[in-house]
Design a protein that fits this description.
22% strand; Endonuclease, Chain A; alpha+beta
Length: 171
């Protein structure tokens, strides 16, 4: 399971994550802000990894990836995992059904767990520790990667438009 949200405060969600971890589910969480889940507890959260990526752009994505028995599901949502969002607001969560969009979203989620420049791991005491590239490992900054990818895509589309044949129409 992979989730990307801004905050994780809801006790019921945290309890469900602990229960899933105890059952052997590998859980990766990208929590940008508040995280009330305790990491590193061999009894409750040994299968839970939490990172926080703080970089140039403020992200507002809430994305979830679940995989059970060969049936992957990707969802986008409006709510963070906070009591006020889940109990006192009208929020949405919808499946992403387009296969191309699903692949792109999964790449996005995976990239944030590869970030070794702007990412921090959340420690058992609630503090964080900046991740650094391992010896010989290249630096990887997720937001910069996506920014460059977007620029390349925009330039390619611009070139495609420039190469499109436009017939001459006399005046």
């Amino acid at each position: 399971m992979i989730a990307k949200v801004n905050s994780l405060q809801d006790p019921d969600i945290i309890a469900a994550l602990y229960q899933a971890s105890k059952a052997g589910v590998e859980i990766q969480l990208n929590i940008r802000g508040i995280c009330c889940l305790k990491t590193g507890d061999p009894k409750h959260s040994k299968n839970i990894r939490v990172v926080s990526v703080i970089d140039r752009y403020l992200e507002h994505a809430r994305v979830f990836y679940f995989h059970q028995g060969g049936d992957p599901g990707i969802f986008i949502a409006s709510a963070d995992w906070m009591g006020r969002n889940l109990e006192r607001r009208v929020e949405l969560m919808i499946p992403v059904e387009d296969s191309r969009a699903r692949r792109r979203i999964l790449r996005l989620l995976e990239a944030f767990f590869q970030d070794n420049t702007q990412a921090s791991k959340i420690l058992p005491d609630g503090s964080s520790e900046r991740l650094k590239p391992a010896p010989g490992e290249k630096k990887f900054r997720a937001q910069e990667h996506f920014f460059k990818e977007a620029r390349r895509t925009a330039k390619a589309r611009e070139q495609e438009r420039a190469m499109t044949f436009e017939p001459h129409v006399p005046k």
